[in-house]
Amino acid sequence: MAESKPTRILYMEDDLGLARLVQKKMRRAGYIVDIAKDGHEGLSMYKEGHYDVVAVVYNMPGDNGLEIIKSIAVQGPVPQIVMITGQGDELIAVEAMKPGAGDYLVKDVEGKYFETLPSIVERLLGWKFLLEEKLRAEEQIKASLREKKVLLSEVHHRVKNNIQVIISLLRIQTGKIEDKKYADMFKEVENRIRSMALIHEKMYQTADFANIEFGAYAKSLAKDLFRFYGMNTGKVQLKIEVEDIALGVDKAIPCGLILNELLSNSLKYAFPNDREGEIKISFRSLNHHEVELTVSDDGIGIPEEVDIREAESMGLQLLHILAENQLEGEVELERDGGTSFRIRFEN
Predict the structure, then answer these.
(1) CA distance 262 to 289
(2) 218 within domain boundaries
(3) How many distinct structural domains can be found in the chain?
(4) Assigned domain for 235 exists
(5) Do residues 221 and 346 share a domain?
(6) pLDDT (mean) for 249-259
(7) Is the pLDDT at 300 greater than 80, yes or no?
(8) N or C: the chain end with fewer CB closer than 10 Å?
(9) End-of-domain residue from the set 95, 111, 127
(10) In terms of domains, do 220 and 341 share one?
(11) At which of 84, 111, 138 does a domain end?
(12) Which residues are within 8 A (CB) of 241 and not within 5 positions of it... i.e. 6 or more apart?
């Protein structure tokens, strides 16, 4: 194990006799002390050598102690600095703290002020050690986060690829089914998986895996579904009003599946016989902890006698399971002038 290097101190003092006393005192305490008789010499020595502590007497020939500290500060990382002032110069010492001095010492009449210098240096070095430990710990945390980010990126990339394989297999199987009813069921499953794949794609593209911007996701999913169902965008208009709200992946996936089901239902059933109309997607904050997803259309609507909780539709069953069980939210249906589903949940 390598031995630690002794602490080096640069002491700037124009009274060489006093400076020698300080040097002797500090050497007994185990420190290496170099003396500079004025600011010019001190700054030159500071540039050439590595010092752990710089002690500066305020009343120096040429540049005063405050100007010396400022000159040191502009050169890079500031070492531990002690400002030494005369009696009644505490305000100067406090002013020296601004550019980087860590402590100050007032010369006493008896000239024994330097007796306390070793304890001040020891305290400053203790602060320096704690700061260095803190910086090392922060660097370790940053390195760990970088490693985890790379790992998460790889995991999400693999998940995305595996989902694409599943979608391809479903598509192949669907092509072999002659009965349209069952082929459509496979296509609906493919769309549900595709909506999950889109979530993972958004996660993979963003720098923040914990939050997914839902507005961009809604636009991408709507575009895919309009194309899948061959919907004429000239007759059925899509209106999206989405606030800048991010969802965690545990909310984004069920919310994305709900959007897939409701949008698919509107595209399949709301506008028969080339009927014209509008589908609207809204996603907004209700308060600081609750959000609302609304999918509405001005199509033919759901008949009053249909109980959506008892319906045999797989999509409506999924809607309640996802909204109430996974999102722990509420589902509200309005049938006035079309169909409007509102899902409220905490985010």
Answers:
(1) 24
(2) yes
(3) 2
(4) yes
(5) yes
(6) 86
(7) yes
(8) N
(9) 111
(10) yes
(11) 111
(12) 280, 281, 282, 283, 284
In this structure, are residues 113 and 15 in contact, taking their beta carbons and an 8 Å threshold?
A: no
> Do 282 and 241 form a contact (C-beta atoms < 8 A)?
yes
Q: Do residues 101 and 215 share a domain?
A: no
Q: What is the CATH number of the domain that holds 272?
A: 3.30.565.10
Task: Assess if residue 293 is contained within a domain.
Answer: yes
The residue whose two tokens read 């059933």 is 269
Segment (H or E) for 34: strand 32-36
HEC per residue, 96-137: HHCCCCCEEEECCCCCCHHHHHHHHHHHHHHHHHHHHHHHHH
Whether residue 65 is contained in a domain is answered as: yes
Q: What angle do CA 293, 322, 171 make, to 5 degrees?
A: 100
Do 219 and 335 sit in the same domain of this protein?
A: yes
Q: Which residues contact 212 (CB under 8 A, 6 or more apart)?
A: 199, 202, 203, 206, 246, 247, 248, 249, 252
Query: pLDDT band for position 344 (50/70/90)?
Result: very high
Do 97 and 71 form a contact (C-beta atoms < 8 A)?
A: no
Backbone angles phi, psi at 198, to 5 degrees: -65, -35
C-alpha 71: how far from its chain's center?
37
- Is the distance from CB of 330 to CB of 294 less than 8 angstroms? no
Residue 342 has pLDDT above 90, yes or no: yes
The whole-model pTM stands at: 0.53
H helix or E strand, kind and range, residue 55: strand 53-57
Tokens of 171: 């598509």
Domain of 301 in residue numbering reads as 210-347
| Dist. CA 31–CA 23, nearest whole Å | 9
Tokens of 121: 């240096």
Tell which residue, 256, 275, 255, has the closest CA to residue 338: 275
Residues 311 and 209: beta-carbon distance below 8 Å? no
Choose among 7, 8, 71: nearest CA to 38: 71
**Lowest-pLDDT choice from 47-61, 183-197, 243-257:** 183-197
As a whole number of angstroms, the distance between CA 11 and CA 13 comes to: 6
Q: Which residues pair with 57 in a beta bridge?
A: 84
> Do 219 and 106 have their domain in common?
no
Q: What is the CATH number of the domain that holds 63?
A: 3.40.50.2300
